[in-house]
Design goal:
This protein has 107 residues and is α+β, with helices and mostly antiparallel strands. The protein has helices at 3-17, 45-54, 90-106; strands at residues 59-60, 63-66, 71-74, 78-79. It is globular, with a radius of gyration of 14 Å.
Length: 107
Amino acid sequence: RDARVMTTMRKSLKALKAGKHIVIFPELPDGHDSHAERLQMGWLNLASMYHKATGKVIRMVPVYIDETAKTFYVGKGITADPELPIMEQSDRIEACIAAHIRGCRAE
């Protein structure tokens, strides 16, 4: 793995353990105002790292920023089951996040 990714993961975990919130943008836009069909889900490993370090489950909240309407949409929180490998849950979590983003873009 790229050392920058691991450094980011460690810093993110440290911030979460300190009670702070973090924002992750899992989209890979192809250019201004475009978004890839699939989201990057490697960041989900952070949920496992957090649970392993604290015994707590992290709640992920999808958001969408509509620059044109100057609106910030907040979706329903999603949690991962700590008893299951995180990447087995990535399709379900990605579907929830993507549905929120697509729904907001359609408004």
